[in-house]
């Protein structure tokens, strides 16, 4: 268990008792499991960042109720109405996510990477918090998520040792099976190493070429909107995921000549062809984005603009994502957000496919 | 003998688990071991005095009541420390009056308080004083019903209409003796441990005391010891905003004595990274100095926004090497 849990709960009470802390720890144990996380992580990430107003539909359903139930298992008198102890529930959700990322259960597959990618995509554009201590907790969640992705990125790019063939067998059948296993292992190691080498080459060519293969144009000749979207989509397509930490630097270098502008202006300069690069191909991911626009806000916006043929979107966007379309950022920051969302979509899709065994 | 709780919503009788998380449950002050008391009777009984140190509801909040607010929504807990007679309670009452009269607008507007009777009772003397001059003491000396439990005054403020946000502020209202005791001995730090949660700290000093050459050095020395003990014995977080509030600045024409900056420098030397020095005149005796001077600045200093670091300019080692390589290729 995270040693700083008592300090974190100072947000909720100035003098947390030992009993209070042990009850919350037990609840977090129930919540930071693979099953609970797979079922509820989108709801929890949304709840942690926005509370109930945006996730009002959640009050009576599984996401927030699961947290209430986990606490009630230790403390039956805990109120069922989430509004009564809203901050307590949000802190518990945040600590459960943090606990899962810091100490993931063994053999959890890529779920911790998926959770990390969604945390980063959700919080990247939300830079300031009026609640200093809660802001620090979110910041801690963000930095932990970033390090989970960086560690995974580093480990998947390590060149695998080619296994020495271990061929044994008294008869022909056993010998054949043994050779088959040895060759399969060798083949996998060679393929993995080839993937890593190929990625390095592709990225090098992309970084030098500074041309979008999808939009068939140099990034310098594209508008800021098209360049930011295309660069992020191209990079996410070429890189093994999760991307290396330097991916955002490469992205910045690609769009560094583009101006600082608001989302309204950025989108005004983006073509439908570029926006379509952001659309998830998987229907389940598409549906997640529609249900929870605040998690992957720019992906939601791209889908909304394509569907409605660019009808006015600002008011609706602000309402569902709590991001102001008039806030200005350098184009590189928008490009990084596009990349974070592309990475999150791809990892969710991959994880769901793995979970379904396809 | 069955366990019965005086709190209507507690289910200890059925589950054996305490609503207030006391462990073992027998240590809960709300517990009654009387047999044959029906829950309806229990629910209508007045809570025992031990459950809260507030004798008159609404005058101030104890830890339990503060926790009820804090666990529902984020509350900014502001510690206000200073020796006896340095104007802590006056400052809070002046802030309340400014807020309720709309004089913090447009930045902040009054949005309610759970301790309205508390502010009003503290201001009773102010509303009654006779004659043209201010009385020596506007608010009564703060005394605690429970000597080891802090009391809080609540004030909710809305931020500017462009970025609507309600700040729930919980100010400590502690007797000056708590600060004096901590300066005398670190063993008194235990009762101030709740300040580890503080979102901001205001240390009050009287302008005439830190300006006077006879008392200046002892005031600075006391401030240094206080800050050191808050850091080391209480465990105050160092990035918490600290306001050096110099009260009765109406006596110095609204200007800050030089010693105030020495105290701020001491705080910075002790590692506090967010220190502001502000001249305060809660109730001014000088017509040239407005009452409530500096209180808007105190709020601004305390309600700093937590900004996550976004290193837009940092370049990683890998990409720097790539830049060098690219430069070499371009040059060759």
Give the tags.
heterodimer, A: 358 residues, mainly alpha, 16 helices, 5 strands, flat, B: 332 residues, alpha/beta, two-stranded antiparallel ribbon, 12 helices
Task: Give an overview of the whole structure.
Chain A is flat. The longest helix of chain A is centred in the middle third of the chain and has 38 residues. Chain A has 358 residues and is mainly α. The model of chain A has no long low-confidence stretch (mean pLDDT 89). Chain A is 65% helix and 3% strand. In chain A, the strands form 2 sheets. Chain A has a two-stranded antiparallel sheet with strand order 2-3. In chain A, β2 and β3 form a beta hairpin. Chain B has a 7-stranded mixed sheet with strand order 4-5-6-3-7-8-9, with helices on both faces. Chain B has a two-stranded antiparallel sheet with strand order 1-2. Chain B has 332 residues and is of the alpha/beta class. At the A-B interface, α2, α5, β1, α7 and α10 of A face α1, α3, β10 and α12 of B. β1 of chain A pairs antiparallel with β10 of chain B.
């Amino acid at each position: 268990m995270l040693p700083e849990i008592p300090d974190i709960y100072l947000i909720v009470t100035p003098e947390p008792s030992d009993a209070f802390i042990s009850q919350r720890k037990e609840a977090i144990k129930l919540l930071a499991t693979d099953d609970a996380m797979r079922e509820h992580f989108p709801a929890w990430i949304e709840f942690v960042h926005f509370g109930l107003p945006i996730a009002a539909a959640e009050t009576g359903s599984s996401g927030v109720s699961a947290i209430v139930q986990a606490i009630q298992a230790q403390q039956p008198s805990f109120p069922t109405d989430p509004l009564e102890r809203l901050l307590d529930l949000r802190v518990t959700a945040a600590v459960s996510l943090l606990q899962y990322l810091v100490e993931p259960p063994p053999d959890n597959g890529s779920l911790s990477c998926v959770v990390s990618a969604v945390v980063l995509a959700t919080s990247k554009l939300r830079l300031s918090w009026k609640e200093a201590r809660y802001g620090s907790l979110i910041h801690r969640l963000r930095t932990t998520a970033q390090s989970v992705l960086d560690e995974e990125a580093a480990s998947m790019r390590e060149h695998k040792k080619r296994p020495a063939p271990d061929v044994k067998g008294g008869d022909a059948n056993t010998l054949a099976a043994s050779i088959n296993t040895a060759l399969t292992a060798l083949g996998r190691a060679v393929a993995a190493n080839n993937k890593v080498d190929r990625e390095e080459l592709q990225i090098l060519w992309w970084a030098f070429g500074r041309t979008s293969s999808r939009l068939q144009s140099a990034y310098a000749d594209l508008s800021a909107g098209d360049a930011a979207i295309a660069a992020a989509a191209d990079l996410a397509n070429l890189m093994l995921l999760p991307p290396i930490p330097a991916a955002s630097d490469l992205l910045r270098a690609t769009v560094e000549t583009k101006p600082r502008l608001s989302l309204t202006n950025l989108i005004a300069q983006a073509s439908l062809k570029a926006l379509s690069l952001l659309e998830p191909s998987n229907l389940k991911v598409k549906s997640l984005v529609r249900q929870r626009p605040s998690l992957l806000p720019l992906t939601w916006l791209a889908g909304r603009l394509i569907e409605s043929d660019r009808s006015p979107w600002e008011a609706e966007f602000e309402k569902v994502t709590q991001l102001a379309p008039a806030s200005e950022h350098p184009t590189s920051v928008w490009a990084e957000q596009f990349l974070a969302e592309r990475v999150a979509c791809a990892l969710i899709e991959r994880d769901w496919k793995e979970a379904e065994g396809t | 003998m069955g366990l019965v709780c005086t709190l209507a919503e507690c289910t200890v009788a059925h589950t054996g688990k305490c609503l207030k998380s006391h462990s073992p449950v027998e240590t809960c002050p709300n517990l009654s071991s009387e047999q044959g008391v029906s829950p309806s009777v229990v629910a209508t009984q007045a809570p025992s005095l031990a459950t809260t140190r507030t004798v008159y509801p609404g005058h101030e909040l104890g830890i339990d009541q503060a926790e009820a607010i804090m666990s529902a929504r984020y509350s900014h807990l502001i510690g206000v420390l200073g020796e006896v007679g340095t104007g802590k309670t006056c400052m809070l009452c002046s802030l309340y009056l400014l807020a309720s009269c709309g004089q913090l607008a447009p930045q902040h507007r009054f949005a309610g308080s759970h301790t309205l009777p508390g502010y009003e009772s503290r201001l009773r003397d102010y509303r009654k004083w006779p004659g043209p001059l201010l009385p020596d003491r506007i608010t009564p000396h703060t005394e605690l019903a429970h000597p080891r439990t802090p009391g809080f005054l609540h004030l909710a403020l809305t931020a500017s209409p462009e970025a609507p946000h309600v700040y729930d502020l919980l100010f400590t209202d502690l007797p000056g003796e708590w600060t004096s005791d901590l300066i005398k001995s670190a063993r008194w730090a235990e009762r101030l441990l709740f300040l580890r949660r503080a979102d901001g700290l205001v240390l009050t000093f009287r302008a005439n005391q830190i300006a006077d050459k006879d008392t200046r050095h002892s005031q600075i020395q006391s401030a240094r010891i206080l800050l050191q003990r808050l850091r080391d014995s209480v465990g105050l977080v160092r990035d918490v905003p600290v306001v050096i509030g110099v009260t009765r600045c109406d006596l110095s024409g609204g200007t800050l004595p030089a010693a105030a900056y020495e105290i701020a420098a001491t705080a910075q030397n002790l590692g506090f990274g967010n220190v502001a020095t502000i001249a305060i005149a809660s109730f001014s005796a000088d017509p040239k100095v407005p009452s409530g001077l500096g209180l808007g600045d105190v709020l601004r200093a305390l309600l700093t926004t937590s900004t996550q670091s976004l290193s837009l300019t940092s370049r990683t080692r890998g990409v720097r090497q790539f830049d060098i390589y690219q430069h070499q290729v371009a040059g060759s």
